[in-house]
């Protein structure tokens, strides 16, 4: 009988204690989930502008290495084809090195397309340069590069810019 009397008091207390433990665990789990979500949201608020800036800088890089833009910036009066060739390649190299860190903020596919665009422009410049004499006037190389650039249905830099724009639309 004493055991029954003890059970009358301890059994409800035990049930209340187990229920309390279960409820507290659930509350703690929900609180942790909420805090993780808040941290994630805060990180997104910080990272998204940085990512957008990276895409912006890479679009600018691609615009600056288009053949017509390169020729306008690199071509000086009385330059030879060799000098123009070297100046354009140096400009691409400098622009690329200046923007290499942006790969941290974009997808690997986007970075690969940016690198392919750069390689495509370099290939266009080199193959054009290989068909003329190094001491020819720079205008001859410029004209050849622009003609070959126009023959391509869609220039590699434009392909890369379109891809970056598509990715930016997914972020926003």
Largest sheet: none
SS content category: mainly alpha
Estimate the strand proportion. Answer: under 5%
Which bin fits the share of residues in helices? over 70%
Low-confidence spans: pLDDT under 50, at least 5 residues? none
The helix/strand order is HHHHHH
Looking at the structure, what is the overall shape?
A: rod-shaped
Q: What is the overall number of helices?
A: 6
How would you state the average pLDDT, rounded?
93
Number of strands: 0
Q: How would you sum up this structure in a few lines?
A:
This protein is mainly alpha-helical and about 170 residues long.
Write the layout of secondary structure elements.
Elements: H1 2-64, H2 67-74, H3 81-99, H4 108-130, H5 138-151, H6 156-171
